[in-house]
Amino acid sequence: MTFKTLDDMDLDGKIVLTRVDINVPVEDGRVTDTTRIDRIVPTIKEILSKGGTPVMLAHFGRPKGKPVPEMSLRQVVPALEAALGCDVTFVERPDRATLEAANGPVLIENTRFSPMEEANDPKMAQFLASLGDIYCNDAFSAAHRAHASTEGVARLLPSCAGRSMEAELTALDAALGTPKPPVAALVGGAKVSSKLDLLSNLVTKVQHLIIGGGMANTFLAAQGVNVQKSLCEHDLLDIARGIVAKAEAAGCAILLPRDVVVAAEFRADPPTQVVAADAVPEGHMILDAGPDSVAHINTLLDGCATLVWNGPLGAFEMTPFDAATVAAALHAAELTRAGKLVSVAGGGDTVSALNHAGVADDFTYISTAGGAFLEWMEGKELPGVAALSN
How confident is the model at residue 62 (pLDDT cuts 50, 70, 90)? Predict the structure, then answer.
């Protein structure tokens, strides 16, 4: 994948339309988590340092094409100013003269207040292009949307990736684009149905596929295992068998739990027991992978050069069903720190699980992009990325 970065652009004296993701959680008008804001700071500061005027384009919530006061980006300005260490000019109705007169970074009101944004209306793209000299996309998390501010305007101005977008694309290429083999993918979560495209793509790209979480129960059931009360999509057994057959044809080895942690009810700290995966007691449900399964996962990772991780191995939100996820995450982090493994992870539950395990800073890269990360793993073209590479 070829795309330009800030290194390829002359920013001095230029208005740089910068698509950012600052769709952050807000309570009582205050930002409660600044993670997404923190990630765009290097790009905004670099544009400023090179003599450019960063004009931030962003969405907030789902206003459905109409101005909604509680979804105004105005409420994000104090957190932006704190992160950047300078004043930010907020503009509701932008025009070229206002932007040229700005002294420092500018934030334009929620792009989704116009119905033309999500429709990728050429008129809105042309209007945005008339405001700036260069387009910089630093919002990978919105790159799977073909909107006026993510795709349309990118085709009308000299375009580049911001530092956060650049880091994301570089990490993703290292994980599945041109990875160092052997490559393992660990995919967990509740349902196979939400990750069919993902699994079908991965078995053609990786040498090892580790399946955990509730979806592993569906694959076990497809092998004839009685999973008793466990979460299981019994209507997808043929599809699970099809994925296994596709993996065999592609030379991808699937690793399912060998032993499991079971309980009679799903709550915190119930009576549990560890049993073989094919020996779940009547009236019980699988809620985590067992210690033997974790040992096999860790041994497998010892022989791999690259790991892509999406989803937990068990119901990690409740103890003690976080044990397998935490143990595997700690081992992957140890291998990464030792320089033996390139580890890339992403997806909402995954970020929470790795934070819970205390290893988020030890992985090579953790994507907070959610939908865009998943669509990339599914092998789909992301419009916002494609527009940069043209």
Answer: very high
Find residue 217's DSSP bridge partners: none
Q: Using pLDDT thresholds of 50, 70 and 90, give the confidence band for residue 159.
A: very high
Catalytic residue from among 36, 39, 112, 205: 36
Which residue out of 65, 348, 370, 379 is catalytically annotated? 348
Least confident range from 192-196, 252-256, 366-370: namely 366-370
> Which one of 191, 229, 246, 258 is the catalytic residue?
191
At residue 124, the pLDDT reads 98
Q: Is 346 a catalytic residue?
A: no
Q: How does residue 368 score in pLDDT terms, banded at 50, 70 and 90?
A: confident
CA–CA distance, 337 with 334 (Å, rounded to integer) = 5
N residues, the chain: 390
45 given a catalytic annotation: no
Is 191 considered catalytic here? yes
Q: Is 251 a catalytic residue?
A: no
Contact residues for 381 (Cβ-Cβ < 8 A; gap 6+): none
- β partners of residue 346: 367
The single residue of 104, 242, 371, 379 carrying the catalytic annotation is: 371
Residue 49 buriedness (CB in 10 A; 0-12 / 13-18 / 19+) = exposed
CA distances from 171 to 6, 155, 156, 367, 383 (A): 17, 24, 27, 9, 18
Does 390 have pLDDT greater than 70? no
Q: How far apart, in whole angstroms, are the C-alpha atoms of residue 352 and residue 236?
A: 28
User: 89 vs 76, 128, 142, 143, 148, CA distance in Å?
Assistant: 12, 17, 23, 25, 22
Q: What backbone phi and psi angles, to 5 degrees, belong to 354?
A: -75, -35
Q: CA 283: distance to chain centroid?
A: 36
And the tokens for 286? Answer: 């699988």
Residues 246-295: pLDDT tens digits? 999 999 999 999 999 999 999 999 999 999 999 999 999 999 999 999 99
